[in-house]
Amino acid sequence: MTSDPPSSTVNDPLFDSNHRIFSDKDLLKIGHVPEADRIVGRDEEISKLAKRLNGAVFGSSPENVMIYGKTGTGKSLVSRHVSQRAQNAAEDNIDIGTAYIDCAEDNTETQVISSLAAKLNDESATDISVPYTGLSTSKYYKLLWKTLDTQFDSTILILDEIDLMNNDSVLMKLSRAEEAGKIDCSIGVIAISNKIQYVDNLNERVKSSFQHKEIFFKPYDANQLREIMFNREDAFRDGVLTEDVIPLSAAFAAQEHGDARKAIDILRHAGEVAYEDEAERVHENHVRRAQQHAEKDRFRELVNGAPTQAKAALLALTELSLNSKDDVFLTGRIYDQYENICMELNMDSLSVRRFRDILKEQAFLGVVEIEKINKGSAGGIHLQNRLIEDPEVVRETILEDSRMQR
Ligand SMILES: Nc1ncnc2c1ncn2[C@@H]1O[C@H](COP(=O)(O)OP(=O)(O)O)[C@@H](O)[C@H]1O
Ligand SMILES: [Mg+2]
Q1: Which residues of the chain have pLDDT under 70?
Q2: What atom in ligand 1 is closest to the CA of residue 28?
Q3: How many domains is the chain built from?
Q4: Closest-approaching ligand to the CA atom of 79
Q5: Where is the AAA+ ATPase domain (predicted)?
């Protein structure tokens, strides 16, 4: 594929329509839904989900589905893809409505219901208008029922990141609307969560009304991640990607847990870094910098929120890692370093026991890895600690806190 520079009517040379690196960067947006032939390794999940929604295509009811899986395993993508296909495939006299809600944004009952009503409502067909704010929850429900009834035979509603929604009665009301005689249109909910216990924690009444099937999404392996990225290669200009870029991005994302979001983020970011560098092509070192940046972002969130004592503890482990060939250290050794740091910072130091708890908590957060070693009958159990993140990145992040500077 050769990409001719797009012709432009912009005359100001300050703005350049002809990007050196990207030819269609939108392909690398997280919310972008790629065409079917760019979707990799999800045939089984796609067909399972299609079976659950099948009824809608022929005028009967779709089933509810709960989708579980870690970040970047394609849950949102597959849900959007299959519901779009169901909508397009529907028999001539069948109208299917679909709507996608991100519960990280719309996290209250009123927000979810008003967004659904606004998204599904076609004013020219229903003659009603749905204001974005200002009505009571029950009014929004009424508008939603009316919208559904006038326009559709059935609807498929995707509630993404549902564990972030603060009120689970939405699920109950949506599930019961048809049997309660409120609407004639059947509703299938696809609820998505990366917390596997989500349904167990629901209130009993909600649980019994939200009858559903479950689908689990497994992480990708490095080959699948590579293929996912190769299928979007045309986001870049021809010949701009050097050959190691995609395999290296895949390797980094596979280390994480097989996260396609991370893979695509790194790839896009590598392109941005290359552009900033005024490079002609994207090279391996751009990927490494993009990866460092991604790690730093994730880590920064964890560290920024950490108490000062935890930062001092991490700094101790970080400095040992930077100044030694080893990367694992006994708790006692880190504690000594920590005490020095506290002294230099004019900070009280905690007891060894409290210090151990801090390391445990950091292990829980995935910043530190702790391994027990048994030193035999006399020696007892010792704990070896290792920093999971790159110590350079960790130190840089900790030192962003002015209280940590000596
Ligand atoms: N099987 C796949 N084939 C192609 N692209 C994928 C696939 N799975 C995920 N992606 C891409 O990876 C990114 C993250 O996927 P997403 O569906 O948002 O994951 P999740 O919802 O599980 O966190 C998106 O850009 C998506 O298009
Ligand atoms: Mg998602």
Answers
A1: 1-8
A2: 25
A3: 3
A4: 1
A5: 61-216
Q: Domain boundary at 185, 217, 249, which?
A: 217
Predicted pLDDT of residue 8: 64
Q: Residue 100, annotated ligand binder?
A: no
Residues 279, 130, single domain; the answer is no
C-alpha 176 to ligand 2 mean position (Å): 26
Kindly write down the DSSP assignment for every residue of 163-188, as one continuous string.
GG-S-THHHHHHHHTTTTTS-SSEEE
Predicted local confidence at residue 1, as pLDDT: 47
Could you report the per-residue pLDDT of 240-266, keeping only the tens digit for each?
999 999 999 999 999 878 999 999 999
* Closest listed residue to residue 119, CA positions, set 74, 151, 77: 151
User: What are φ and ψ of residue 101, in 5° steps?
Assistant: -120, 130
Residue 1 lies in a domain: no
pLDDT (tens digit per residue) in 295-315: 777 777 788 778 899 999 999
Ligand nearest to the CA of 262: 1
* Rounded alpha-carbon distances, angstroms, from residue 175 to 24, 104, 155, 208: 40, 21, 12, 10
Q: Determine the Cα–Cα distance for residues 78 and 334; give it in Å rounded to an integer.
A: 46
CB 84 within 8 A of CB 33: yes
Of 302, 329, 345, the last residue of a domain is 302
CA of 265 to the centre of ligand 2 (A): 14
- The pLDDT of residue 19: 84
For the CA of 80, the nearest atom of ligand 1: 17
On whether residue 323 sits in a domain, the answer given is yes
Please state, as a whole number, how many other Cβ atoms lie within 10 Å of the Cβ of residue 2.
7
User: Has 73 been labeled as part of a binding site?
Assistant: yes
Mutation probe of ligand 1 site: the residue of 27, 46, 77, 233 with most atoms within 8 A of C-beta: 77
pLDDT the model gives residue 2: 47
List 67's β-bridge partners, or say none.
Answer: 192, 215
**Cβ–Cβ < 8 Å for 95, 77:** no
**In the block, which residue shows the tokens 């998204």?**
119
CATH number of the domain that residue 350 is part of: 1.10.10.10
Residue 155: CA atoms inside 13 Å, Cβ hemisphere, count? 29
